[in-house]
Amino acid sequence: MDLQTFATCLIAVTLLTLSPGVDTMLIIRNSARGGWLDGATSSLGICSGLFIHATVSALGISIILLQTAWAFNALKFAGAAYLIWLGLCSWKRAVRGRQNIFAGKLSSEQDIFLFSRSLREGFLSNVLNPKTVIFYMAFLPQFINPAEPALFQSLMVAGIHFSVAMVYQCLLAAMVNKARTWLQRPTVNRVFDTFTGSILLFIGLRLATDK
């Protein structure tokens, strides 16, 4: 990848990363739930999913998904169902109230559970998002040299996207973490959980009905 192509790719993935969407909402939601570590771990899961999309696109599987209605719809509804489930979880916390899961010292078992939960939520929200499949199918060919291995170049683009997204999302998690004292107030966090849950539900329903 030459310098000009790299610069163009960097600008494109930066603009994509800064565009608000499911990833942004999940980072804000999880950072408010468990602090910077929760948000950063969720970001790691989200960004790791980019390599799956890059690999799938390079191998041409995305073309099969896009041209096979039932396969694409299955992916779409799975992604929509997962977002709706995350939204309902936020609503559930809003109704029941929540405790600060990082209060006190965590045991190693709790630490591993929280890490795996955040990683899983981020990874699945990204991998099950059909819009990311479409984006990578349209985006990757612009930076692929047919004379060189497609998979290696695709993973390189995903690596650039990974780096930019991790930096931005970790900074976003740090900003939300600064406001956690305020967000942990019972009334405020109920409103916040209701708001983030509603947004995730809206995105999930919009995805399920989007043609």
Short description:
The protein has 9 helices and no strands. It is mainly α and 211 residues long. The two termini are 35 Å apart.
Q: What's the structural domain tally?
A: 1
Helix content: over 70%
Question: How far is it from the N-terminal to the C-terminal residue, by CA?
Answer: 35 Å
Main sheet attributes: strand count, strand direction, barrel closure: none
Count of strand segments: 0
Low-confidence runs (pLDDT<50, min 5 residues)?
99-109
Rg from C-alpha positions?
Answer: 18 Å
The SS-based structural class is mainly alpha
One letter per element, helices H and strands E, the order comes to HHHHHHHHH
Average of pLDDT? 80
Shape: globular
Q: Report strand %.
A: under 5%
Provide a count of the helices: 9
How would you explain this protein's 3D organization?
The chain is mainly α. It has one domain (29-209). Helix content is 83%, strand content 0%. The chain has 9 helices and no strands. The protein has helices at 3-18, 22-59, 61-67, 69-96, 108-127, 130-139, 150-178, 180-183, 186-209. α2 (22-59) crosses α5, α3 (61-67) crosses α4 and α4 (69-96) runs antiparallel to α9 (186-209). The longest helix has 38 residues, at 22-59. The two termini are 35 Å apart.
Task: Spell out the key features of this protein.
9 helices, mainly alpha, 211 residues, globular, single chain
Secondary structure elements and their pairing?
Blueprint lengths: L2 H16 L3 H38 L1 H7 L1 H28 L11 H20 L2 H10 L10 H29 L1 H4 L2 H24 L2
